[in-house]
Amino acid sequence: MKCPRCDGNKIEVIATSPVGNVWEVYECMDCFYSWRSTETPHIHEKFKLKKEQIENLQIIPPIPPLDK
Ligand SMILES: [Zn+2]
């Protein structure tokens, strides 16, 4: 199995259907994209990520402390 967004192959099952064995949710350990086994995600070329892009992703700025 490959990640639909970055083509990574480190995919983990992060959830399964509570009743029966109907679906699983997968998550890519490289870009953290997740999807359900019952969908067939199609990522537009524009939103695909390459390894270099993932490594260079900006860190989300921390929320500054509230003024007292
Ligand atoms: Zn990925």
From TrEMBL:
NCBIfam families: VdcD. This is Vanillic acid non-oxidative decarboxylation protein.
